[in-house]
Amino acid sequence: MLDYDLATRYGIETRVLKQAVRRNIKRFAGDDFMFEVTPDELSRSQFVTLNKGRGGNIKYNPFAFTELGVAMLSSVLKSETAIEMNRNIMRAFVALRQLVSNRTEDVSNGRIAVLEYRYAELKNEIEDILTIQNDINEDTRAQLELINQALAELQVKNKGADKQHRKVGFIKE
């Protein structure tokens, strides 16, 4: 916002606003608070004649204030409107900080605790499932070993049994 618009909103003259800014220029250091508008940036009328009446023409380059600059300006000016605006900004800041801190506490005490509990439950369930699966695998391995052992014994018996078989057919004397 430009200085003359803010002066109107704060209920003071533009020169008083500019004077207060110049006296507290360190508070407005950097382009993120305020900057002075150059003549090239001003949108001037194409007419060569000046406006009638006192203060109708721009004599000095106006200051343009950012959101941070408007908040800082409320702490520098002495008008009742500026003081009330500064109080409201401070109240809003404190309310926002409390909201964020309460939200953080709610999240840390509530949702995150619930998520941690659910994570621990899932981890325990997965460990139990893997233990059961491992037990099943060991049982299956033992059974497969028994089956292999039985098959090996059968093969040994079959080889010995093949030698003792009698030949089929007539026996010549």
Write the layout of secondary structure elements.
Elements: H1 3-10, H2 14-23, E1 34-36, E2 63-65, H3 67-76, H4 80-164
Antiparallel strand pairs: 1-2
Question: Would you give an account of this structure?
Answer:
The protein is mainly alpha-helical. It has a domain of 76 residues. It contains four helices and two strands, in the order ααββαα. Strands 1-2 form a two-stranded antiparallel sheet. The longest helix has 85 residues. The termini are far apart. The mean pLDDT is 80.
Concise overview:
The protein is built from four helices and two strands, in the order ααββαα. It has 173 residues and is mainly α.
Largest sheet: 2 strands, antiparallel
Low-confidence stretches: none
Helix tally? Answer: 4
Taking the alpha carbons of the first and last residues, their distance comes to 131 Å
- For the secondary structure, the number of strands is 2
Defining traits:
two-stranded antiparallel ribbon, 65% helix, 173 residues, mainly alpha, 4 helices
